[in-house]
Amino acid sequence: MDSIFFYIVAATAVISGILVVGCKNPINSALSLIMTFFSLATLYVMLDAPFMAAIQVIVYAGAIMVLIVFVIMLLNIRIESGKRYMHTRVMGAILGAVVLIETLYVIMRPASQNLTGGKGPVDAAMVLNVGHTELIGRALFTDYLLPFEITSILLLVAIVGAVLLAKRKV
Question: Is the dihedral of CA 42, 45, 49, 52 positive or negative?
């Protein structure tokens, strides 16, 4: 039963991910992205990571998507149906095929050739004793504090840039 549910959720995530790229209307793409985020949150719950699922829903499906929809509406993007050229579709198809081949290569490698070659300091017993949230919080605010702060500054710059671009057109 679990595998059937996994396949349904995974298919939903893949199909909505394809719709993110394939929709012509940017609002429809944003709604498809929200569906992808919810599917990923469901997969996190299936992996016994409820904190990551909650963060996925609150931060990405909530805050980030509100920001993206706000920027789309602020910029007033029009759908230009006649501006699609064939060479961009061909390049996209080639790039997608290359990424698919690379992914299949990584998946099909023998188990002896793992990606990192080493194990991390966190194991299942440590997660059960300490907890998901505390381990993530410690790592985020000690080892990864600089990337965390840089990401927040980049989001702020993106918002200010979108407002400035919209103000020039008004």
Answer: positive
122: helix, coil or strand?
coil
Q: How many CB atoms lie within 10 A of CB 37?
A: 20
For residue 157, what are its two tokens? 């710059």
Q: Is the pLDDT of residue 153 over 70?
A: yes
Local confidence band at 12 (pLDDT 50, 70, 90 cut-offs): very high
Question: How far is the CA of 21 from the CAs of 95, 97, 123, 155, in angstroms?
Answer: 14, 15, 37, 22
DSSP-assigned letter for residue 111: T
CA–CA distance, 84 with 23 (Å, rounded to integer)? 13
Q: What CA–CA distance (Å, rounded) separates 19 from 130?
A: 39
Residue 70: C-alpha distances to residues 111, 121, 162 (Å): 45, 41, 10
- The structure's pTM equals 0.57
Q: Is 54 exposed, middle or buried (0-12, 13-18, 19+ CB in 10 A)?
A: middle
Which band of pLDDT confidence, cut at 50, 70 and 90, is reported for residue 111?
low
